[in-house]
Amino acid sequence: YRNWEDGDETMDKLDWIVEFKFIPWRGAYAIGLPHLMGDLAAALTGALRALLDSAHINNAATLLKLKGGKISGQSDQVDVTQVVEIEGAPGIDDIRKIAMPMPFNPPSQVLFNLMGFLQDAAKGVITTSEEKIADITSQAPVGTTQALIEQGAAVFSAIHARLHGSQRKLLQVLGRINRWYLDEQRKGDVVADLPITKEDFEKNSDVIPVSDPHIFSETQRMAQTQAVMAYMDKYPALFDPRAVVSRALKQMKIPNVNELMPNAIKPIEMNAADENASMALGKPAFAYPNQDHLAHIQSHLNFALDPVFGSNPMIAQKCLPMEMEHIKQHMILWYQAQMMQYAGGGIDINLQKYAELKMTKQIDQTIAAASEHVKEDSQQVFQGVMQALQQLGQTMSQMAQQQAKSQQAMVQDPEAQAVLQASMAETQRRQQRDEADIQMEGQRLQADIAMNAENNLTKERLKVADLTNDQIKLQKEQQETALSLQEAAQRNLRG
Questions:
Q1: Is 47 exposed, middle or buried (CB count within 10 Å of its CB: 0-12, 13-18, 19+)?
Q2: More confident site: 414 or 134
Q3: Verdict on whether the full-model pTM lies above 0.90
Q4: N or C terminus: which one in the chain shows less Cβ crowding within 10 Å?
């Protein structure tokens, strides 16, 4: 049977069964995660059960009895966790001589080590990059984070790429079926109003998944976003901050990103009056090539120099800088239009083909000649405009000086100075009070130390005085005793 499409000269094989392979293997079929983890999981379960059974049996109170001992009852069977009474034989004075625990082996340390080995082997098969990234800090370099992701996700990245290829093949099969049998199918409510025909699937080589086969987790996408933001901080001139932040917010699944970051105002072509009103309200205006630039410049200058509108202090602060920028745009566009008019008039030279090497010198010579005419025209046309622009520049300078003076006046305001001086005086008073408190505390501590020293010295002096009084009393008693003895001796001699 033919297994290629009718009319296909290349006779490419048609796929009818699409297999989503986990890992290719020898033979007709691939293997999945149960094939990789099945034996390791069974071995881990068996080792754990053996350890639990050994621990349970080893802790059971099962006994062995001596043959001479008598057990009451009709049964000699001793069940697990059962203890029965035993009658000792004559001369038995220790129950351990009659019964002893069953000598079961404890849980094996070798089996425990084997279970740890199997666990590490299983972890090596199913480990992911997220487990490694969780161990690093936020200060780690971007390259280190990216390397850890690639190293830890090597296996799963290949698996995701194979699934991506299978999804592409499946979409191609569906496109071929639609190309063959679409008109014969009955349209439902979903596709009833969609203009879909067989011809839409005639050339469907671009029907591929929109996902990236190298990115399979949100962690990788977040790492990429963080890397882009790090490079944006390092090279700010090379990136669009709005686009980078918007992509980061969308990657974090933040809802209503456009509400948080509204789009910039799109330029709209308006007449000169609407542009003046827009700039007076603080919104920018844009010049366009097909406008009458001199008429626009005259309208903007009249509005900007009017003391009621553009030069009004309420409006000028925001309006005048925008007016100056907008007038600059009109002047540049007028210059380009004049250059194109002089350079392209009557000469068969396409100025847009400047990149072609054969026309470069001719275009340069033509533009150099046209610039002389534009220079003369600009001096005549913009003579009054330059005076008005200088006046606007002086007005803006005066406004800036007045603003600076007002700020300085606010600083030199007596009330503000009084408040400032009062606050500074209060600060100094608190600082002096704190210093006085610290000084008083130090003096109190020194006084306490001195008082304690004086008290100790006084106690010592009192002790010395007490000892001295005792010595005086003892000497006095000894003298009185000696006098009494002398008087007694004299009386004896007289007698």
A1: buried
A2: 414
A3: no
A4: N
Q: DSSP string covering 387-398, please?
A: HHHHHHHHHHHH
Rounded Cα distance between 453 and 377, Å, is 103
Q: Which residues pair with 63 in a beta bridge?
A: 101
Say if residue 348's pLDDT is above 60. no
Helix (H), strand (E) counts: the chain = 14, 4
Q: Is the pLDDT of residue 481 over 70?
A: no
Percent helix / strand / coil, the chain, rounded to 5:
65, 0, 30
Query: Rounded CA gap, 228 and 279, in Å?
Result: 36
Strand partners, 64: 100
Cβ neighbours of 287 (radius 10 Å)? 22
Nearest to 119 by CA among 33, 47, 22: 47
d(CA 256, CA 411): 44
Q: Tokens representing 486?
A: 């002398």
Cα dihedral 325, 328, 333, 336 sign: negative
pLDDT at 12: 86
Handedness of CA 429, 431, 434, 438 (dihedral sign): negative
- Calpha distance 379→401 (Å, rounded): 31
CB 299, CB 291: distance < 8 Å: no
DSSP 48-81: HHHHHHHHHHHTS--EEE-TT-EESSS-----TT
d(CA 229, CA 240): 10
Grouping H, G, I as helix, E, B as strand and the rest as coil, residue 241 is: helix
Q: Which residues contact 334 (CB under 8 A, 6 or more apart)?
A: 293, 294, 297, 381
pLDDT tops 70 at residue 248: yes
Tokens of 43: 């071995």
Coil, strand or helix at 41: helix
Token pair, residue 407, equals 């700020």
Mean of the pLDDT values across residues 247-274?
81
pLDDT at 136 over 60: no
Which amino acid is it at 9?
E
Question: Residues, the chain, total?
Answer: 495
Is residue 29 within 8 A of residue 107, CB to CB? The reply is no
Q: What sign results for the dihedral spanned by CA atoms 70, 72, 76, 77?
A: negative
CA distance 192 to 188: 6
Given this model, what pLDDT does residue 8 score? 82
Tell me the pLDDT tens digit for each residue of 68-86. 555 555 445 667 777 766 6
Rounded-to-integer distance, Cα 408 and Cα 328, Å: 33
Q: Which structure tokens are listed for 425? A: 């005086």
